[in-house]
Amino acid sequence: MPALVRDFENAIEAMAPLAFAERWDNVGLLIGQREAPIKRVLLTIDLTAAVLDEAIAQQVDLICTYHPVMFKPIQRLVGADPKSDIILRAIKAGIGIYSPHTALDSAAGGMTDWLADAVGQGYRRPLVVAESLPVTQELKVVTFAPANALDRLRDVMASAGAGRIDHYDHCSFSVEGSGTFRGDATTTPAVGAKERFERVEEHRLEMVCPASALHVLISTLRQFHPYEEPAVDVYPLRARPLPGVGGGRKVVLDQPTTVGQLAERIKKHLNIAAVKSTESAKIVRQVAVVPGSGGDFVETAIAQECELFITGELTYHTALSAWTRGCAVILTGHANSERGFLPILSQRLTERLDSVEIILASADRTFFEII
């Protein structure tokens, strides 16, 4: 059977889950049908008219463009501007469009880690650590019941959606304790007598559950619980840090070096002729790295005592602010800090999609010239 668009989605999202993307971003399948067959995929940083011409000539089924061709909401597709024309031509040619963008930046071993490889050996971590909370673990529901009711309650709670952690179900925790109560004259307690203080041995039963299942879970729990008025607690759970995942990277070098020496490493790694930098003689050890446009991370980098900030581009005043506060800057050019990762992405996708040909767009190149 031929590979489908959804197979490509599964392959790339295994490396760069869309949940890792920044909230403002527009990532994933932007144009196309998930059940459409694919034989050939074109990788590019930017989807320009020239890249689309190449895709059509190469009879490509899907374009994976790092930068989303549709970033802000589009109200009209009339072909009157270059972006609309590209979208309409791609649809007419039956070519799907996918963008990983900041999901690929944040992923462990993704674009940002590739850029950080140029800096040298040292301790590395995200500047902004990503956090995640699986849908099945949004809440924790706790109830209290006698030991002989635990197995039944665990089963009915699991049937209502509780207790799923990744590939495991019926996950729970219980601990024995002592509970007390006194019912008024209208009650019919399952243990003891009404209007009398009672102390009973109980078990605390805990299970995680998705927020969407809470209503059914509570109803089911009350239906099958042996107590007339079961105690039920609901706790919201916080997202947990994802090791190695997040925006930007901070590298604490094993050996301090100068900004000028790091600039040479960067040029070699990116295969470019020049970078812009400040204070080439400055010796640094704590380095921040962000591909593309890294302005949103400058304050974070300075707060974390980074002495050098490496990125594709910054506005003049953002760079000036960093420099005047003791953080040197190296600027590579926006796409220069990204394009070199595409061959690595191509190789990884080829390993996961052996029936799909992955092509690097030859028309994808920087439009700036150094004169």
Can you offer a commentary on this structure?
It contains 11 helices and 17 strands. It has 3 domains: 3-105 and 340-360, Udp-n-acetylmuramoylalanyl-d-glutamate--2,6- Diaminopimelate Ligase, Chain: A, domain 1 (3-Layer(aba) Sandwich); 108-130 and 244-333, 3-Layer(aba) Sandwich (Udp-n-acetylmuramoylalanyl-d-glutamate--2,6- Diaminopimelate Ligase, Chain: A, domain 1), CATH 3.40.1390; 135-236, Alpha-Beta Plaits. The mean pLDDT is 95. Strand 4 (40-44), helix 2 and strand 5 form a beta-alpha-beta unit. It is α/β, with parallel strands linked by helices and 371 residues long. The longest helix has 12 residues, at 259-270. It is globular. Helix 6 (150-159) packs antiparallel against helix 7 (214-224).
Could you give the topology of this structure?
Blueprint: E1 3-4, H1 5-15, E2 28-31, E3 37-38, E4 40-44, H2 49-57, E5 62-65, H3 82-92, E6 96-99, H4 101-106, H5 111-116, E7 122-132, E8 139-145, H6 150-159, E9 173-181, E10 198-209, H7 214-224, E11 232-236, E12 240-258, H8 259-270, E13 276-277, E14 283-293, H9 298-303, E15 308-313, H10 316-324, E16 328-331, H11 342-352, E17 357-360
Parallel strand pairs: 4-5, 4-17, 5-6, 14-15, 15-16
Antiparallel strand pairs: 1-3, 2-6, 7-12, 8-10, 8-11, 9-10, 12-14, 13-16
In short:
With 371 residues, the protein is an alpha/beta fold.
